[in-house]
Specification:
The structure holds 2 protein chains of 2 kinds. Chain A is built from 5 helices and 12 strands. Chain A is an alpha+beta fold. In chain A, the strands form 4 sheets. In chain A, strands 3-4-12-11-10 form a 5-stranded mixed beta sheet. In chain A, helix 2 packs across helix 3. Chain B is mainly alpha-helical. The C terminus of chain B is likely disordered. The chains are: A alpha+beta, B mainly alpha. The interface between A and B is large, with 47 and 45 residues.
Chain lengths: ~280, ~190
């Protein structure tokens, strides 16, 4: 009797162990398709790709938005180094203060500040649980013929924990934008080439009415035909607006508005040429 | 039974019932685990993987020029886009240049239909027609076409009668873009 009961208990226990084993061993094979784990790992690792893609596109967007801001604010920084540049009737007065020469370096730094400001707005909330900020991403802007490049690396690697894997990934970027600000270069070149002509013209044509001054000047000197020029003479001052004839990326045109004084021109020295 | 003898006959309530209860718990546990795994079906994951990769590549690729028959000006504009931008740029440019937002939309939509048609997912490619409607990044992209647009704001891929929804944040309007793929009918992009 006692032996029989022990046998019943042992048999029940063996049955229980067998059932649990079968449930744990066979059910996943029946219901979990082969490849799900691998695809879930891939999904996790794709996060690095998505985050990198986000940062790259943010840089590109910042370059475009920076250009739009620059176009609205004006292409001439209000200060160069610690020097405030002269302004008259809201327009920068060029070639009057030798300490305020706009160089390529000045302009690049100015544009860079707009791009940075925009870039900082693209990280308002965590992305895939990662707390990203613009300060994590160092970049520089270099200009070449027909394009500029925004390139750099994240200051540190990022650690992402997905459903299946935890991994660390770096982020680097090298974005090419199809514009090199050659209009800015061209504007200064054509201005510098015509400063003598403008001064001569102003001395010779003292009796010319101010409303016909612009057309006559345009015919006498050789300004670049990439722009539409508008000259407005007010005493010794000439207010100039140069508008590009062709569209620039998404903008219909770029418009440069400034003034020069014909009596007190400081021509830039050869070692401080603009662009 | 004689007096003083210990009974070895198992009592059903105290000996057998707890065993059965443990058995039921074990069964319920494994059944639950399996259900959880099966919610992300292989098809859904495979589709998402293919689509995600193709979409990321698409966004950073150069634009294929489009010819608008009988409209030289529009063709010229589209050619300009092709030589200056990536597809990802177009979404953002539509926020900066409202005047040409429709052109950006058309070029983007044409490109995504053409490029993502090749997404390799056997279960979802067969007989599927690719349609894209955008409400992001700007209402100008919204193009209902009479369909019933009910955004499904979930970020986890799920397979529910051939529908897959997943989440793709883009830095255009600081709003994540959600892409819903529907087998054989329509595709929507919501923001």
């Amino acid at each position: 009797m006692k032996r029989g009961i022990v046998m019943v208990l042992l048999t029940s226990l063996a049955f229980l162990v067998t059932v649990v084993y079968l449930l744990s061993d066979t059910t996943p094979l029946q219901q979990k398709p082969v490849g799900v784990d691998a695809l879930q790992v891939l999904e996790d690792t794709r996060t690095a790709q998505k985050v990198t893609s986000y940062v790259r596109q943010s840089l590109r967007n910042s370059a475009y938005a920076g250009l739009a801001d620059l176009s609205q604010e004006g292409f001439f920084p209000k200060t160069v180094g610690n020097t405030s540049c002269p302004v008259i009737q809201g327009k920068p007065l060029l070639y009057t203060d030798a300490s305020c020469s706009y160089t390529r370096k000045t302009f690049e730094a100015y544009y860079f500040s707009f791009v940075q400001r925009r870039f900082a707005t693209f990280f308002p909330s965590p992305l895939y649980t990662l707390n990203l900020t613009a300060a994590d991403f160092n970049f520089t802007i270099t200009f070449d013929k027909d394009f500029m490049v925004l390139a750099g690396n994240a200051s540190h690697s990022f650690i992402y924990t997905g459903k299946k894997v935890t991994y660390e990934f770096p982020i680097s970027y090298n974005e090419r934008i199809a514009y090199d600000f050659h209009h800015y270069t061209l504007l200064f070149k054509t201005l510098q080439n015509n400063l003598d002509c403008m001064q001569r013209f102003a001395k010779q044509q003292t009796a010319l009415a101010e409303d016909t001054f612009g057309d006559a000047l345009l015919k006498s000197c050789s300004f670049s035909d990439a722009f539409r020029w508008r000259f407005e003479k007010q005493g010794d001052l000439v207010f100039i607006t140069a508008t590009t004839k062709d569209p620039v990326l998404f903008l219909d045109n770029l418009s440069f508005a400034f003034a020069i004084t014909l009596n007190n021109l400081h021509l830039p020295s050869p070692d401080n040429t603009l662009f | 039974m004689r007096k003083g003898q210990i009974s070895l006959v198992p009592n059903f309530f105290s000996d057998i019932l707890p065993g059965l209860f443990i058995l039921l718990l074990a069964y319920a546990f494994f059944a639950f685990v399996d259900r959880d795994v099966s919610t992300n079906s292989l098809d859904a994951l495979r589709f998402q993987d293919s689509y995600d990769r193709a979409f990321a590549t698409f966004l950073h690729s150069s634009i294929t020029p489009i010819t608008y028959v009988g409209d030289a000006a529009k063709t010229q504009q589209a050619t300009y886009l092709a030589t200056h931008y990536t597809y990802g740029d177009l979404l953002f440019l539509a926020t900066l240049d409202k005047q040409d937002a429709t052109l950006y939309h058309n070029v983007f939509t044409s490109g995504i239909r053409s490029d993502l048609r090749s997404v390799s997912s056997l279960a979802f490619q067969q007989d599927s027609q690719w349609f894209f409607n955008f409400s992001s990044p700007d209402p100008l992209f919204f193009d209902d076409q009479g369909g019933s647009l009910t955004p499904a704001y979930i970020s986890k891929p799920s397979a529910q009668s051939s529908h897959i929804t997943f989440y793709y944040p883009l830095p255009h309007s600081q709003i994540p873009i959600l892409i819903t793929a529907a087998l054989g009918t329509k595709e929507y992009v919501y923001a």
